[in-house]
Amino acid sequence: MDLIKLSRISMKHLITLHVMLDTLSVTACAHRLCVSPSSVSKTLTQLRGTLNDELFYRNGNRLVSTPLARRLGPTVHQMINDMNQIMTQEQFDVAHYAGSFSLSMRESTFELLAAPLCEQVLKLAPNIRLDIWSKDNIGVSGLAKGVLDFIILPHDLSQPPNIDNNLVWETLFTDEMVCLMSNEHPLATQSLTIDDYLHYDHIGIVDNDLSVPFFEMQLIQQHRKRKIMVNVADFGAAATLCKNTKLLFTCSKKWAKVAAQAQSLTMKALPFNYGQVGYSLVWYQPCMNDPAVRWLYQQITTVGHKIGRYT
Length: 311
Fold this sequence. Notes:
Elements: H1 3-7, H2 11-23, H3 26-33, H4 37-51, E1 56-59, E2 62-65, H5 67-87, E3 100-105, H6 107-124, E4 129-134, H7 141-145, E5 150-156, E6 167-175, E7 177-182, H8 194-199, E8 202-205, H9 214-222, E9 228-232, H10 235-243, E10 248-252, H11 253-258, E11 265-269, E12 277-284, H12 291-310
Parallel strand pairs: 3-4, 3-5, 8-9, 8-10
Antiparallel strand pairs: 1-2, 5-12, 6-12, 7-10, 7-11
Helix pairs in contact: 2-3, 2-4, 2-5, 3-4, 6-12
């Protein structure tokens, strides 16, 4: 252990690195830390010299983090979190807690969970602030960076994602998959067969954080590959397209039952075995050291399990 080298790195250096990994901007980092940009630059220069790495370099008009900086991100986040626990040892008081939490979810997940979750959280913690982001803007990488506390994500439970070993995935509730189509679709008035399902073109959902859904693999193995003509980022956009075309859209039944975009569409059971699907809560394992985050976890799971029972 090189104590002399370690003594040259302070919490100021670690916090600056942590915020820079989030913002990738000296100006934004300085604003968040309430210091001048020159102060941030000076701290980064000191850290670069100690670590013998550039940490951030300019590519065109933007800053890019080096592999070492990205690799240090989760460790630095955990160190800052541990120090925060040391400095704030008083018992967590939810009624007077005035901190903030950051969540990320798809717009379709928002329609299912956001309203009951906000009602539950704000009733118990009136001084809290919830920042709910679209997963298109901040994805799974935001967990390791400390930008997000949790992500709530619909996905194929038969094929658990393998993105980061430090990520924890917990199922909030399971769901069925259904096929949506326009009320004017030729299949709207008849039972849906596998031949019908594969005959028509489909709308797909893209998600860079998840691998190929298990149901797609099952479909290919048991029958053949369906033809995706349009890919979109979320259920709502897919339902809107579905309403005005002959395209079929496969999605969550719980979402389809509550979403305004799906109300004017015809819903059919899928004519093949598709495994298990559901909505999972995802977090970065070390963040559970924070009692406030553990409290929010309890609220999310309570609301999620309730939706699983009643929706």
